Write the structure tokens for this entry.
Amino acid sequence: VQIIGLAGASQTVTLNGTIGGPGLADANILTSDNADGVDLDFDGNSGGGSTISGNILVQNNTINFEDDGIGVDHRDAAGTMNVTIRDNTLNGVAGDDGSTMDIDDGIFIFTRDDLGVAVNQLNVEILDNEINNVAATKNVIEIVDVQDGNKVCFAATGTTVTSGSGNIELDTAAMADLVVDATSAADLSGLN
């Protein structure tokens, strides 16, 4: 599933929605053998003036993926995007070539502003997900490239890895504002 929000110069885009739902009857089984299982891609105009905001809930899905299980990209736009990822099962699987070498991260979060013309707020809450078959060289959860004055608030609790391994990686530039809802790396690890 790919949801794309594109805002041109001086445009405002608001995206609200749910993939899955509160009960198992609302669940989806999503399989992608060459891409992200769920790709939430929000891009503004790199020249400035774009605003992208919204509320997205990804809940109670089984997602079989070869690239990232769930990818969230919020770039080059002002605005506030709230993403909640709850009660999903993410399974790294072999692609159409039969190889598992392309399996990437379980959950991948990316935000940046290439020209430093907009400051966005990306709030990501990751609750009670099961992530399987991520290679030891990849990450169960990765927050990457937070820079250019962007703001990210990140919380994760209840992440279970039943098979495979991996880490939670937080990668931010000095000029970014990354808030992690944990008192320390050990606390974040203990919550997941």
Remarks:
- The two ends are 26 Å apart (CA to CA).
- DSSP finds one helix and 16 strands in the chain.
- The CA atoms of residues 30 and 63 lie 5 Å apart.
- The helical segments are 185-191.
